[in-house]
Amino acid sequence: MRILGINALYHDPAAALIVDGQIVAAAEEERFSRRKHGKRPVPFSAWELPELSAAWCLEQAGLKPGDLDAVTYSFDPALHLPADQLGVFDPWDELRQRYAVAAPDFLASALPGLDPSQVSFVAHHVAHAASAGLAAPFDQDCAVLVLDGRGERHSSLAGLYEQGELQILHSQQLPHSLGLLYEDATEHLGFLRSSDEFKVMALASYGTPRYLDDLRPLVHAHPDGGFRTSGVDWNSLAKKRRPDEPWSAEHADLAASLQAVLEEVLLELARWLRARTGSTKLALAGGVALNCVANSRLWRESGFSEVWVQPAAGDAGTALGAALAGAQQLGEPAAAMPGADLGRQWSDAEIEAALRTAKLPYDRPADIAEAAAQTLAADGIVAWFQGRSEYGPRALGHRSLMAHPGRAENLERLNDVKGREQFRPVAPMVLASRAAELFSAGPIPSPYMLFVHQVADQWREKIPAVVHVDGTARIQTVDPATEPLVARLLEHFAERTGLPVVVNTSLNTAGRPMVDSPRDALECFGSTPVDLLAIGPFAVRRPGLGTSPVLLPQLGLPDLGSSDSGPSDTGLPDSGPSDTGFSDSGPPQ
Q1: What is the full DSSP assignment across 119-186?
Q2: Which of 361, 397, 538, 557 has the largest count of CB atoms under 10 Å?
């Protein structure tokens, strides 16, 4: 059975392919088109068909459109309601609904040979639920909670998966929406709505929730398993911030109050679901599930013993969810998600061809992981491009910028490299076997950067670059069994510095999608002060960096010697192999 899942309506267009019960490929269109979140100029900002990512998924499996047994689209226009019944004003809503009705023909045009009659619709929140409940690595049934901005007529779903079948226990009718509430506040705070909500989460740590008592009567859980969000006047709480003006204490306090009320409501919803289902396992999806601070509180306080979050929890994940739901309906359920590395990869020969086209000096170290660790130990910045790209908004050791965590200055340094706000944290990548020594108050292992942990007191001064203002860190644990190359890098770095941690942030600059192809990687290297590009087995070096480790007084490590790196320049290739054209974290929509 060959099933292609498609998301192409609100934002984050994506495609995913399941073949004979295995998840073969999944990718966001932005990685191909280089338009972040798949957005074009208004009014067609979110209606980009994932034709490039869909074509790649088929190519990855050696299939043609006519070989597909089904195509599932993660929005059901039959469930859509007019704006006056939804209570949510969107000037393009009617046109969006007509676009969805015509999706089978659009897809048949984009994928010649596809029969439009093979396209079926999956309700938006059912697709989200499937992306969590059917993809989770649980060996038994689980509860599922979906929260985002909106679907056809709802903004949430609470349910239970039993033997692969979804029982919906509650769906919250619009206009009440925690995702839209967070979007509204994001815009009020001067950020880009449906894109920059993660910035509000980061800003919240700098404030105190002094507006929480004002928000609670307006934003609260309901005894039926739903919630209410109505009548919030942001101007009565804090002055609207222009995008070009600095944030103030009142803006941070508003962000903190919003985050606090969101966490309170989520806790009540999860506890209701725990009591209703009796399940000890919870799977989360929907853009709100990208709020790793709230996820950690759910893990600690909701009563569920295990909490799993879909790595592509935003709308991109509904492409996979639609395919999983379709497979289940057709009687061939798919295996759990094997990992987030479901995107494109390049052979060593293809990468070397790109380097030659760029006329860049490069070398092939005996061990690229050791070469990268040596650069990091000498306080260099490493651009790391390895294996298949990740599905979802988190860089998980395949498309990463890395740095030494022992220097507090490296937070500002990396934010400058990426061209982003200085209040935003960067994350630690840590050996799974050492994680419990350094981090607590969150699940371990934590391979997808979807929870925050408290940094142990004795480690805060040793790894200051990755400690947020509130003493937390959004960690990624690395297991040699699943990520042997990254684990080897961490081991080499620990040998040189005594630190089993490196700084990890996404390989991109502000406003651009995460690097996906060799061409993207070379462009990023050429335009940013990165010291080493570790691309496949090859090293592209910027001159001038020594290789002595950065020694921290509290560690008392010996000097391991030094040597000079080789020369480099910043030329770019005219085109990259298997590429179709020229980021940060995703939104909670």
Answers
A1: EEE--HHHHHHHHHHTTS--SS-EEEEEE-S--SSEEEEEEEEETTEEEEEEEEETT--HHHHHHHHH
A2: 397
Q: Are residues 96 and 239 located together in one domain of the fold?
A: no
11 as an active site residue: the answer is yes
CA distances from 121 to 141, 163, 172, 418, 536 (A): 25, 22, 20, 39, 39
| Residue spans of beta strands (DSSP E) within 267-367 | 281-285, 306-309
* Sign, CA torsion 504/31/157/68: negative
Token pair, residue 427, equals: 């994350």
* Spatial contact of 74 and 319, defined as CB atoms under 8 Å apart: yes
Task: Give the per-residue pLDDT at 199.
Answer: 94
Residue 291's pLDDT is: 97
Percent of the chain with pLDDT strictly greater than 90: 82
Q: Are residues 181 and 141 in the same domain?
A: yes
pTM: 0.91
Co-location of 322 and 297 in the same domain: no
User: Do 272 and 362 belong to one domain?
Assistant: no
**Single-letter amino acid code for the residue at 414:** L
**Model confidence at 561: pLDDT above 70:** no
Is 583's pLDDT higher than 60?
Answer: no
- pLDDT, tens digit, for every residue of 479-505? 999 999 999 999 999 999 999 999 999
State the total domains in the chain. Answer: 3
Is the confidence at residue 588, as pLDDT, over 60? Answer: no
Residues 494 and 365 in one domain: yes
* DSSP of 354-404: HHHHHT---B--S-HHHHHHHHHHTT--EEEE-SSPPSSS---SSEEEEE-
Question: Which range, of 61-65, 84-88, 228-232, 502-506, averages the lowest pLDDT?
Answer: 84-88
166 with 289, same domain? yes
Of 11, 37, 251, 453, which one is the catalytic site residue? 11
What residues contact 347, with CB distance under 8 A and at least 6 apart?
none
- Buried-state track 397-436, b at ≥16 Cβ within 10 A, e below 16: bbbbbbbbbbbeebbebbbebbebeebbbbbbbbbbbbbe
> Would 578 be classed as within a structural domain?
no
The residues that bridge with 372 in the sheet, in sequence order, are: none
Instruction: Answer yes or no: is 367 within a domain.
Output: yes
Query: Counting beta carbons within 10 angstroms of the beta carbon of residue 215, is it exposed (0 to 12), middle (13 to 18) or buried (19 or more)?
Result: buried
Provide φ and ψ at 523, rounded to 5°. -65, -45
CATH number, residue 67 = 3.30.420.40
Mean pLDDT of the chain, nearest integer: 91
